Amino acid sequence: MKHNRITLYVDLLFCLVIMPLVITLLPVDRWIVHNTAFLIALVIYVYALYFAYRHVRIARLFMQKRYLEIIILMAVLIGITALLTHFPMPESLTTTDLRQMAARQNMRSQTIWFFFLVVTGFSLAIELTFELFRQILARQELAAQKDRAELALYKAQINPHFLFNTLNTLYALTLSKSDHAESAFVKFSNILRYMYAQADREMIPLSDEWEYIRQYVDLQRLRLNAHTQIVIEEEIDNERTAVPPMLFITFVENAFKYGVSSEKDCTIRIGIRLREGVLEFRTENAVMRHREEKAPGIGIENCRKRLQLLYPERFELQTSELQGLYRVRLTIQLQTP
């Protein structure tokens, strides 16, 4: 729609401003009296030539390598232009002076070819600009579609990972006949309801996402004994700030997966801070067991790719392991300065 409006504005600019100004360079006052038919034919020719170029779109034909069509079109237009140079002179301008007649005819020819070059140059320049604009928009749309597809894939990968981990927790509670099993199933149903309610949304309020993390932590607490302490810290200046759903869950899952013990004292710290559009999320846990492979986990790499699509050049994700503590620190510039 926007492109159509721009095209209309350019056509109006040419028809109502540029061409009338160029035509005023001619001896219009004399031609309109003595050479009216030629003046009318010239004006019709100029506008017809312009809209012929606009309709055919030579720039697109050139990019599509349809050179034969371009050659045929230019041959036809040049032929019509050449024929117009032989437009008959009115009887009132005929004279026996051959040099004067030749001068008038030469002036006509120069005028016609001048308009041909002006309209051709302007039309090709405008059409080339529009074609480049269309190509840029097409590439941006393809890139956007690719990004949306990748985001959907990453989000789809998060959900099964979360479900399997949580089902294992519920299985353990049920197997041990824990008194917390019923409460755990209630919390799990709330978490599932949240997940599927937000599945198709690109952004949600930070308060909803943080409440989801709290529900997950409460669910994990039900299966842990007194050896594992959980500390949650938060400082949020605007709970309605929009964030992508399921953004933090991978880091929290990993903290519980590798940082809990039923025999040794350990602490898991989860913190979030939002101030003036800058979001900082962090986790810290004692390393109670290691990942079998040394390479980064799929979940973290998945999150990194998702962040690259959502916040290119506006986030920093750091992970480190030092003196038996594993730390994650994610900083996002949610609002561009």
UniProtKB/TrEMBL annotation:
One MF annotation (Gene Ontology) recorded for this entry: phosphorelay sensor kinase activity
Gene3D superfamilies in alphabetical order: Histidine kinase-like ATPase, C-terminal domain
TM region positions: 7-26, 32-50, 70-90, 110-130
Protein keywords: Kinase, Membrane, Transferase, Transmembrane, Transmembrane helix
UniProt keyword tRNA processing, yes or no: no
GO cellular component labels: membrane
Keyword Transmembrane helix: yes
Pfam families: His_kinase (PF06580)
Name of protein: Histidine kinase
Family matches, as InterPro entries: Bact_2-comp_sensor_kinase, HATPase_C_sf, Sig_transdc_His_kin_internal
Domain Signal transduction histidine kinase internal region span(s) in chain numbering: 149-225
Superkingdom as given in the UniProt entry: Bacteria
